[in-house]
Amino acid sequence: MFTFVDDERVTGATEELMWQVGHTVGGKQAYLGIQDAARKVGPCSQTPRAWAGAVVHVVPDLGVCVLTSEEKLLKLKHIVGKYLELVLSGEEELNHKDLISDRGILVYVTRAYPGMVPYLKGFHLTIEMWRGNRDAEGWKLPAKALEAAVIQDNDLGPMDEDAADASPCVLYGFADASGKGLGSTVQGYPTRALVESSSNPRFGVGVWGRDDEAESSNFCELANLVLTVEEEAAAGHLTRSEFFLFTDNSTAESAFYKGSSTSPKLHALILRLRKLELRYGLILHIIHVSGKRMIAQGTDGCSRGVLLEGVMAGKDMLSFVDLGKSALERSPTLLLWIQSWCLNSSVQPLSPEDRYERGHGILGGTHDKHNVWIPDHEPAGQTHLWAPSPAAADAALEELLKASHKRTDTFHIVVIPCLLTPRWRRLFHKAADCCVTVAPGSKFWPTDMFEPLWVAVILPYYRHSPRQLGRAPLMVDMGRKLHRLCSERDANAGHPRRGTYSVTQDLFPLAVLHDDSASEWVRQRKRASRLNSACDGAYAVIPFQCELCWSRNLTGADLQLPRDLRFQQCIRRANLDAFAGKAKTTIASHVRGLKRLVGLSLVLRKPPSVSQTLRGPMPVDDTVGMSLAIEMLMYSISVE
């Protein structure tokens, strides 16, 4: 069942099943006091009316088709006919307001027909021609006022039905342009059996002509993709098929999914790809991958004339396609890293089925005396780990957004490999309060993962404004530090607490200082950063231990969250207060001295003469008065 605002739509395998689901939903809503307007209930159909801005029909030979309403289609035909008549009549002046209004309707229609997006470029260019510095067709002129390139709309001609393969299949391919050369590798698989390939990998090798050598790398990469698709289409491999084409050029991916480009030449190439989709019933995916994956797969060598690498040497094409694997499936040690810094050290990833119940805070349920199923909700403060595959990330993030609004007292962690990002990037940043990009090369995300890992943390909502902390200065600063730390590809990336240590201001709010004009003190943010976050090297001056170690020292047991959350915050506040007692310049001076001593000890080949607080192991005892400090902190916030 799908919900749009206050409207629901039921889907099912059979008409009888749909009627049963609709009856059950209506009965439960009535039991809960939610009015169900029977006059709005429509019959079960594979060709229903418009809903949520689109018309979705099930066609036996084509499958699920997304259309627009008849009213919008008639408006589209009227607009196109109106401007076609004006152009044929030789009219050169068009009404600017009418262009803007008509463009809005066309943009709405293209949401159902993405193949029409490139054709809106003429409207965009015409509307913006008044800004100046444009050529006769509306394209922006370069800084040196070079002449705009002439776009040639290459007609593909009618499809050769004798050469077309009527049986649909799934194809995977890689294309790369290196310097003066270009290459591609493609392999097809039947849709009903993705175990064995229908043929050996097909490869293409070539060099650019004299006219194309001076073109930009973005043009060469996208042009190579277009040539690869056109060659497969001419060979009859793309009819009613799905083609996953990988490239190491991010501009080609973004331009294809955007549907247009500010470059006339790139826009012409995108238009050729969209025409291929429409003519052959093709579903095309342009996917950006790391250049190292391209090298390991063998297409990079193919573009240079080397035909003994990757799939050319006999490796399986699917071993280089990780669209259906989650980050935890690809790197099992990633879960241990997440558990090391998560509030719930035993957190486990949600299965695809759990994303629709346990991810929403539902732990089963029971039937009441009226035989109505009442769900059982989990306690507050729980943590859920979402680790979908890139291919299913958009659907998982949609459920995550619903869950975060339904249960505002729950923590969420999201980990997704950086693949197919145009499909889920916007949802990812919309949901995240703090996001980090982990570069390949750490122990939990090694170099053979190729692409970076995106990690997001979603915090509970607050009862007061602001409801979310995603754009709070403290969260933004922490996100920057974590991003810088996890991009260094060194041992410090193994544990986030080595590079940053901060505390939320729930239990210990920081007083806001004002100047004589009642404005916030100019150094308020600097003061907050100083008191609520540690600086690099502070552990070399202060006998630092984490919350888990202090819990064992003081109570002889591990922290049990969320029960011991206040105890944990007190320990962290005491540690930060100890760090704030030393100036950053003093800490930096001590760190430089320690590094010098360690360097001299390495020259002498002897252990450095540093204290036990740095070398460890730390004593299992309270030797610095941490217990008293915690009691004083609790007294300071509880006294009337």
Describe this structure in words.
The chain is α+β, with helices and mostly antiparallel strands. It has 20 helices and 15 strands. The protein has a 5-stranded mixed sheet with strand order 7-6-5-8-9. Strands 12-13-15-14 form a 4-stranded mixed sheet. Strands 1-2 form a two-stranded antiparallel sheet. Strand 12 (383-386), helix 12 (393-406) and strand 13 form a beta-alpha-beta unit. Helix 3 (96-110) runs antiparallel to helix 4, helix 12 (393-406) runs parallel beside helix 13 and helix 16 (547-555) crosses helix 17. The longest helix has 21 residues, at 584-604. It starts with a strand and ends with a helix. The model is unreliable at 144-160, 162-166 and 489-500 (pLDDT under 50).
Shape: globular
N- to C-terminal distance: 53 Å
Provide the gyration radius in Å. Answer: 30 Å
Largest pleated sheet? 5 strands, mixed
Strand residue percentage: 5-15%
Q: Detail the poorly predicted runs.
A: 144-160, 162-166, 489-500
Helix content: 25-40%
Spatially, the strands of the biggest sheet line up as 7-6-5-8-9
Extended strand count: 15
Please give the oligomerization state of what you see.
single chain
The secondary-structure class comes to: alpha+beta
How many DSSP H or I helices? 20
Average pLDDT confidence is 81
